[in-house]
Amino acid sequence: MNDLSHGHKMPPANAIVEISSDPARLDIPFIHLALSTQTHWAKDIPRDTLMRAISHSLCFGAYATPVDGDDASEGPEGRAARQVGFARVITDRATFAYLADVFVDPSMRGLGIGKRLCESVLAHPALQRLRRFLLATTDASGLYARYGFEPLGPVNKMMRSIGPTSTPANRRRHDRRARRHLPACVRRRRYRRRACPLARGVSRI
């Protein structure tokens, strides 16, 4: 298991945990390390991609502070709150929201932090009176069912388009599709680049 504390001792299980949607408090190194190494849906996500996602989302962090007396040998700075959980909501704040990237540090699981994250998300003022609130899960359907989420049903009307850079295989598939839409003189390399006006400025694929 990877160390998500990036050099700091994680808070004990009896630490005081608070949930905040203040973006200034987010621990980006923790979030990136957690999502890129500990999840299957965001494995190897580039940091700049994650930063753009966070900047355009409503994000929640779970922060644990050791109670008085714990880690006293580290001094006051040793008892500072450290991020141990994260959740991100993609939303227009009026009609639709999608819950994503819910994560709790492995050393702090089983303490109800995931439940508190979910409750804080659903109670946020910007996420009230939405027409639809979606999420996708493979192993936590029981948790989300407690808060009113349910399967879409036997007739699933949802559709999707997989991003071209989501996986190496998708990137290769996207490149093949892109080639098919290029002018024939570019695709077949029968003419020099200047022979086709549409080919000018098109980089080699």
Q: Which CATH C-level class of the largest domain is it?
A: Alpha Beta
Tell me the strand percentage band.
15-25%
Stretches where pLDDT is under 50 for at least 5 consecutive residues are 70-77
Distance between the termini: 39 Å
- Overall pLDDT metric: 80
Spatial order of the strands in the main sheet? Answer: 1-2-3-4-5
- Structural class category: alpha+beta
Q: What is the overall number of helices?
A: 6
Number of domains as seen in the coordinates: 2
- The secondary-structure element order is EHHEEEHEHHH
CATH topology of the largest domain: Aminopeptidase
Residue share in helices? 25-40%
Describe the protein.
This protein is α+β, with helices and mostly antiparallel strands. The protein folds into two domains: 16-145, Gcn5-related N-acetyltransferase (GNAT) (Aminopeptidase); 168-199, no CATH class. It is built from six helices and five strands; from the N terminus they run βααβββαβααα. The chain has helices at 28-38, 47-55, 113-123, 141-145, 168-180, 184-187; strands at residues 16-20, 58-65, 82-91, 96-104, 132-135. The protein has a five-stranded mixed beta sheet, sandwiched between helices. Strand 4 (96-104), helix 3 (113-123) and strand 5 form a beta-alpha-beta unit. The model is unreliable at 70-77 (pLDDT under 50).
